[in-house]
Design goal:
With 332 residues, the chain is mainly alpha-helical. The protein contains 13 helices and four strands. It has a two-stranded antiparallel ribbon with strand order 1-2. Helix 7 crosses helix 12 and helix 10 crosses helix 12. The protein is globular. 42% of the residues are buried.
Length: 332
């Protein structure tokens, strides 16, 4: 009898279109977060949620492809400070929020997140978090430029706190020991470090961040010996000693395409930042770089997808924690 009732329930669910939720186990192995995100989280609350975000993202990024790198960077910066809670989106009248911290002053793409959120509020008011919107916008923007796709489990809630003083992000001047520690405390391993560094295959930086490295590394008018001399000469032509604003590609020769070329240039000692070159100073990260070079990035897209899923679980707020902001720049 019990079996017949169970079979009847299964048939009924199939007829009315109800499905069992798809909870996504936390890949960070954090006992404090037990798979609270779900690939179908908004299926009944806001069924068109992902298509709405995708449509808005395509509208913006197809016109301005450089936004893909900017939005991916924004998601990373959000997750590394207080977790993936949308706190990087908050504004402060005192200019003391995360977005006011020096590493975040060059973030771009807030208008894309705001436009997607506004569209969602018209369709499903008070339902979708800004943290989830940002996670999806980052994924979809990379897809627009034909980069890798990754699943985005949903159900994050928005944080209410955003402090400039807490914006301690991995530094472009960091050595490998520091970088590994930065990632480890967030639940990410050494492979995640080198894989996510591969995001530098798209986007640009500025002369200001590399000036001392190419013009006066030790105070004697020299350059970092970890860099290829011919690359330094090319950079010096573009970046004069007092120039802090001119844009510089992070992946010269392939900065508009999401591919594994970044690992080729790092292997050639042409990494733009000290943190890029530092990847050659660890056995595991160097081996990964060499493998991608030899195999022409055979596993990079898959690895990047896996690491991005892990990134999206860092210190998430779920259940009754946090809130669902009506506007991403302000707490309710």
């Amino acid at each position: 009898m019990a079996l017949k009732n169970l079979l009847a329930l299964v048939v009924l669910l199939g007829i009315v279109g109800v499905s069992v939720a798809k909870p996504y186990g936390n890949p960070l192995g954090n006992s404090r977060v037990k798979g609270d995100l779900d690939l179908d989280y908004y299926r009944f609350k806001c069924p068109q949620m992902e298509s709405i975000v995708r449509r808005v993202t395509v509208q913006y990024v197809s016109r301005r492809p450089t936004l893909a790198a900017a939005l991916l960077r924004m998601h990373f910066h959000d997750c590394f400070v207080r977790g993936c809670d949308g706190s990087v989106l908050l504004k402060s009248p005192k200019n003391d929020a995360e977005r006011d911290a020096p590493p975040n002053l060059t973030l771009r793409g807030y208008e894309v997140v705001d436009a997607a959120k506004s569209a969602l509020e018209r369709k499903c008011p008070g339902v979708v978090s800004c943290a989830d919107v940002l996670a999806l916008v980052a994924r979809d923007s990379v897809a627009v430029i034909r980069g890798p796709w990754w699943p985005v489990p949903l159900g994050r809630r928005d944080g209410r706190i955003s402090r400039l003083s807490e914006a301690n992000l991995p530094s472009p001047f960091a050595d490998i020991k520091t970088l590994k520690k930065n990632f480890l405390v967030k639940g990410l391993n050494t492979k995640d470090l080198v894989v996510l560094s591969g995001a530098h295959t798209i986007g640009v930086s500025s002369c200001g961040l590399i000036s001392s490295r190419i013009h006066n590394f030790t105070g004697r008018g020299d350059f970092d010996p970890a860099m290829d001399p011919s690359y330094v000469r090319a950079l010096k032509k573009r970046c004069k000693p007092t120039d802090v604003r001119t844009a510089v590609d992070m992946d010269p020769g392939s900065a508009r395409k999401f591919d594994s070329h970044y690992f080729n240039i790092v292997a050639q000692k042409k990494g733009l930042f000290i943190s890029d070159s530092a990847l050659l100073n660890d056995f595991a990260t160097k081996r990964y770089i060499q493998t991608q070079v030899v195999t022409r990035g055979a596993s990079f897209n898959r690895d990047f997808s896996d690491s991005m899923v892990k990134l999206g679980f860092i210190q998430i707020l779920t259940g009754k924690k946090g809130e669902i902001r009506r506007k991403c720049a302000f707490v309710n």
